Structures are given as C-alpha cells and as structure tokens.
Amino acid sequence: MNMTRTSRGLAAFGLAALPLAIQAADTPPDSAAETVSLNPMVVTAALVPRTADESLASVTVLDEAVLRRQDPTSMTDLLRGQPGVDITTQGSFGKQSSLFLRGAGSNANVLLIDGIRLRSATTGAASWEFLDPRLFERAEIVRGPRGSLYGADAVGGVIQLFTPEGEAGAPRPRVSVGGGSFDTQRHSASLAGGSGGTRYYVAGSRFDTDGTAVRRDGDDKGHDSTSGLARLSHTFAGDAEVGLLALRSRGRAEFDASGPAVDDFVQQVAGVYGELPVTDRWRSRLTLSEARDERDTLAPSYASRFETRTRTARWQNTLALGRHELVAGAEYAEDDLGDSETSGLPFDEDRRYNRAVFAQGLLDFQPLTTQLSLRHDDNQAFGEELTGSLALGYALDEHHVARASYGTAFRAPTFNELYFPFVGSSNPDLAAETSGTLELGIRGQHDRWFWDLAAYQTEVDDLIALDETFRPVNVNEARIRGAELALGAEIDDWTLAAALTWMDPESRSGDNAGKRLARRATQGLRLDVDRELGDWSLGGSWIAQNHRYNDAANQARLPGYGIVNLRAGWRFAPMWSLRATLENVLDKEVVTAQGAEFDPVTFEAMPFDYLNAGRAAFVSVHFGQ
C-alpha cells in the first residue's frame, strides 16, 4: 500500500461517513445506555471519573460490548489501529510485540491493570503479547503525556485494562469453548456474584496453538498460556471499602533465533486496597501492590532468566470543593531484579526505589474548565524529575468542547541501559529522556454519535540511543507531530467506529536527522462496523497502515498493509451463543518488523521479515449472560 492510495482511502471514508453523521445528528436516542456508550465515563485521564468530553484528553474506550463482539485472540489485535496506536510484532500468537502510542515506544508508555502497573524492569516495556483479552471487560486508551499523574514513562500515554468486579445477586457462571486455524484451542470460565456488600469474580482461561511460521520457509512457532483471575471486595455500612485483586498468566512461546527457541513466562499482578470516606468531601485510598514479569529463555546460542518485580504503595486523596476537586497523594515503588544466581547475570545494581508526591486541581468555571497537575519523582538510579501539565477546556455550546493542553513527561533509563553486565553495553550515568507536548483538540458530542479531532507536537530531549560502540548515551532529539480523528455512532441496529491517524515522527539530531523514527507508520485507518439482526449479529473491521522503516537510517523499507476481519454471532438459545471470526480475509502479508542473522563466513547481517499469520478462522460457543 503506498501513501497516495492510503490517502485516497482515508478521504473516501470521510466522505462516506458524512451523510451518516448528518442522519445521526437528527435521530433521537432510544435509551440512556446508548448515550453513555458514546460518551463513557473514564478514570485514567484524570484519576477521578469524568465523561470523555469532560476529561480534556484524547481518550478511546473499548467496553465489554466491543470485546465480546470482536472476541480477539490477542490484546494486540484489539488495540491495533486504534487512534494513535501502532503495533509491531515478530510474528503472531505470543511473539514479541511493541506498542507505539503517538510515536512513543513501548518503554515510553504505561500499562495499568486495575491501577497496577505491569512491565519488565529490565527492558521497561510491557509484554502485551502474553495478555489474554478474555480476562478483561474494558480498556481505556489515554493519549498524551501523563507523567504528572503516573510518573516515569507516560510519554505517549497510558493504557489501562479493567477486570470485571462482580455484581450483587446469585452466582452467574460464564463458559466459553472454541478453536480454529493452526490447531488453536481457547477455553475460559468465570463465576461472578455478590451478597451483603460483598462482590466477587473468579475466572480462568487457556489458550493453545501450534502457531504459524514467523519467517519464510520456517517452522511453525506455537504458544500456550494458562491464566487465572480473582477479585473480591466488600463495602461497609459507612461506605468504606476494601478489596483485593490477583491475576496470573504463565505459559510458553516459541520463537525464531537462528534455530528453535522458547520463552517460558509469568505475568502477574496482585494488590489490596482500602478506601475510606474521611468526611463527606474527602475520600482516601491506600493501595499496596506487586507486579511480576518473569521470563526464562532458551535459544541455540544463549540462555537467560529474568524475574523482575515492582512493589508499590500508593496513597491517593480526593477532596470535593463544590464544583471543584483536588487530588493529592504520594507513591513509593521499588524495582527488584532478584539475585544474580537466579538470572546468571551479575547486574551492578539489582534494585532501585522511586519516591513521588503528586497533586492535581480540577477546576470548573463553566463554560471554562481547568486541570492543573504537578508531580515530583526522586529515583535512586537517575535522580529527580519534576513533571506538570495544564489543560483548558471551553464549552462552545451544549455539544462541542474545545481543549488545549501542555504537559511534560520523562522516560526512565531501564536496568539494561544502566547496568547490563556486559562490558560497554550499559551506562550508569544516563539521564532520563524528557519531553514536552502541546495539544489542541475539539470534541463534538451528540445523542447518537460523536467525533473528536486532535493535533499535537511532542519534543523529546536526551533520547537514549546506542553510539558507535553500541553503548547507550543521551544524544538524540526527536520531534513527533500528529493528528487524530475518532468517530463513533449508534444508529438503529448499527454500531460504527472509525479512527484516522496521521503522524510525523522525526529524528532531529545526529546522522539520522530528518529521518523517520524506526518502525513507525505515518498514516493509519481503522473502521469497525457491526449490525444487530435479531438473534444474529454481523460485523467487520478494516485496518490499514502505510509503509514504515525497520531502521533509524530509513534504509530497510517495510510495505504498508490493509487487512479485513469479519465476525458473526448467533444467540441460538437462552444463555447460549455462537461466535465466529475470519481474520485477514484476503490473506494479505503483514510485516511490521525485520530480524537479522549473520553469515558465518562474511559476518554480514542478512535481514529477514517477521511474518504475521495469514487468513485464520475461529469458532466458539458461549454460555452465560
């Protein structure tokens, strides 16, 4: 797909959507539920509940209805092509994946699961490929810097996944069994309920596939994972609440490393919290949590084992002052790599702490609203960082809100960059990458449809890159400009969502000044269309991106792609349904990353493409509400 063809496609879609939007504007809503789904409540953007138009941020919410309709086999399939989101993978089904949010890499974005951060302390990135989407009921994608609320690495934004929490009433079971192409099997079961102020939710899932080849003429690379989830909470008579969460996933992923190779992994989050209404206006919440990212790798030429843990204590207070709100708190976190006997790699430092205090004012002077936040981090490894943001919103009328914001953020150097034990491969004197982002946006919120347009520019300083000896240093600068348009509508039995993304991620220093940052596409489109037909539902997605470069010098060009996914559902009996998906219907080749191996005689690098799966079909039977 070339850039011209992509541009024509985006323009054609915009023209096609226009009459639909006009029709929707004149159609009254059938229920309050539809309006809520188009203007949902979000908590990630401002730490407290705000509707999407009140959040003064670029947000996308993927709710339970979206997850059920699409029934994705991986979290990356769900997120691919959403506004500002770009995914690269080294194959399908458990293969290493990177998520770029507004051009910021995987280690410059934050993943939260019910408020608990999950990532590897050694690489700084989250393992998106190991998360089972069936364990979650909601995803919030907040684009733009959130360093003043969440600390390190929230440069491109924050993605938070929410697990079900159960509701009062008799136990409600849910079971799903299915499978499909590549000898894939998917099973899941859950039980939810509550009584007397107590709510619970327990679930388990299993995924197993023979996989596909990740390079031409290669062998199939399989993947399996087993996951479990438990949530329990109790609300007392005085509205105080306590709760706990435990989520664990473990399994194996085969990959290509000049021969058979395998990752045995564990992803885990656990936490307890207590929330107390100190007064009618003041609520205080304390959360204690631990996140684990463990990986045991065996490849032909090497073996490694990492067990990283992050333990966090977070105290957050919310004070209501009439129409205004104040949020303030403190956070203590400690990263731990375990001992060198476990990993076999004697890092110079194997743990570090981070202490932080933060405050945010949410001021409502209708039609003007203001959000002002500030955070101070003190890190044992790289020193102190101060981040802040200011957002202004103005209600032009009852349907349109204009917004402007400026925020700063930073990316913390990882343990690998600071202390990796091989000589010359790390730099303990690294400073954090810093960034500043200016954003302008406007949102139109109507009864049956919405649209959101945003433009932004991010300047990144002290970008960490490898010098000529492959040692990480603070040398680079980058500028990322972009624009995003999100559209959504619910008309009669139709549900539509569209995302258009344009971005210019450019290196601004060194030999690659003026070149595009590696592995980023500059144009993207996602269109989701679904229709309810009584007991039947039909839908499809079209996801397209233009070309990208695998390297910083822009010599290795990877072609763009366009894929079509189809889906159908049938409620064939009370509590029973069948779902079928056909992914990559046209069997297009999708390559978003390259690898390389070295010629044993000349020692020259020989690149190869990482291939994603072609056409694939999956069917599943579901019982439960």
TrEMBL record:
Family per record: Belongs to the TonB-dependent receptor family.
Lineage: Bacteria, Pseudomonadati, Pseudomonadota, Gammaproteobacteria, Oceanospirillales
Transport in keyword set: yes
Chain coiled-coil ranges: none
Domain TonB-dependent receptor-like beta-barrel: start-end pairs: 179-585
Pfam family, one: Plug
InterPro entries: Beta-barrel_TonB, Beta-barrel_TonB_sf, Plug_dom, Plug_dom_sf, TonB-dep_rcpt-like
Protein name according to UniProt: Vitamin B12 transporter
Cited SUPFAM superfamilies: Porins
Main location: membrane
Superkingdom classification of source: Bacteria
GO biological process, one term: monoatomic ion transport
Cell compartment(s), UniProt: Cell outer membrane
